[in-house]
Amino acid sequence: MNSMNSTVNTLLIEQCNEWPQCSENYAALKTVEVRDTEVDGYKFKVQFNPKRIQSSAAKVDPKSIQERKCFLCEINRPEVQRGIPFASKLGNTYTILVNPFPIFKKHLTIPSVAHTNQLIEGKIGDMLELARLLDDFLIFYNGPKCGASAPDHFHFQAGNKGFLPIEMDIEAILSAHSRQIEQDVYILKNAPANTIVYKSANVDAIICWFNQFYAKFKQISNSEEEPMMNLLSWFQDDYYYLVVYPRKMHRPSQFFAGGEENILISPASIDLGGVFITPLEKDFTKITSADIKDILEQITVTPDDLKKLIK
Predict the structure, then answer these.
(1) DSSP string, 171-229
(2) Mind giving me the DSSP string for the chain?
(3) What is the mean pLDDT of the segment spanning 52-78?
(4) Per-residue confidence (pLDDT) for residue 225, from 0 to 100
(5) Which of 147, 168, 286, 293 has a CA that sits 20 to 30 A from residue 36's CA?
(6) Do 106 and 159 meet the contact criterion of CB atoms below 8 Å apart?
(7) How far apart are CA 165 and CA 258, in angstroms?
(8) CA quadruple 253, 257, 263, 264: dihedral positive or negative?
(9) Comparing 22 with 66, which gets the higher pLDDT?
(10) Which CATH architecture has domain 3-310?
């Protein structure tokens, strides 16, 4: 275990010992219900996690954001919440915090010290650097309209490896379910969510490719700010992995439906990576693989749009 992993693990233990809310929510993870399912040959899990209701139902419209204090700014964080400073090679500064509303057994939030909007442009190098330093974890990014509950403050999140199906099964997936479109770049075939995977030992090559992808996606999506996307990254056996989920919609129709059609789900990186988080028991009980497929098809780009991106 490298020193950064060890330092973070110590922080997790200490925060659970000194912060009752943190201790309670991590203890509650031991009782969450999980069931397995499969969508078009890809493994998925459904987790019933009532502690995530605040995130899943978060109001992220401009008026609501303006009216609440930013919970990622140091001045507004609980006094008991401590963090580990991190300065990237690009000169950006962050604080590594324990997430008090966990999905993973080890769940981190890594906000920028500066209060700046959730925009990944120019920061993909920071994400890959964190993946290398925290190689017991995978790092993820939710775009401002793609599941981020704090679109007004830039942040990554991290969770322990061995939880998300996409991470655990990546080599089998690339071997059996992918098509290589250029050196080190793959698309997943017949996946419920159109997905691009970059695998390389060369971090600079990934950064260069992502910057080109970002510019192209911004162009074809006619986005004034950031094209919609979720990202997952980790470092394993001297290789960097970057999983890109290009999107076209924030929340599916089920989120807004009434009565029996309603499913309170606001998909982000974790859901796309294979673990659907349901904060309501009714949804955990009734959601089917067909529902998951429909939700993913609604929110991610179409195969035709993916072709335009990789042409």
Answers:
(1) HHHHHHSEEEEETTEEEETT-SS--EEEEES-HHHHHHHHHHHHHHHHHHTT-SS---E
(2) --HHHHHHHHHHHHHHHH-HHHHHHHHHGGG-EEEEEEETTEEEEEEE-GGGHHHHT---SHHHHHHS--TTSGGGS-TT--EEEEE-TTS-EEEEEE-SS-SSSSEEEEEBSS------TT-HHHHHHHHHHTTTEEEEEE-TTTT-S-TTS-EEEEEESSS-HHHHTHHHHHHHSEEEEETTEEEETT-SS--EEEEES-HHHHHHHHHHHHHHHHHHTT-SS---EEEEEEEETTEEEEEEEEBS-SS-HHHH--GGG-------HHHHTTEEEESSHHHHHH--HHHHHHHHHHHBPPHHHHHHHH-
(3) 76
(4) 82
(5) 147
(6) yes
(7) 31
(8) positive
(9) 22
(10) 2-Layer Sandwich (3.30)
Strands 275-278 and 42-48: parallel
Q: Under 8 Å CB-to-CB from 104, ≥6 apart: which residues?
A: 159, 160, 163
pLDDT (tens digit per residue) in 226-279: 999 999 999 999 999 999 999 999 999 999 999 889 999 989 999 999 999 999
- Nearest in space to 144 (alpha carbons), one of 215, 225, 67: 225
Residue 226 makes CB contacts below 8 A (sequence gap 6+) with 119, 120, 121, 143, 144, 218
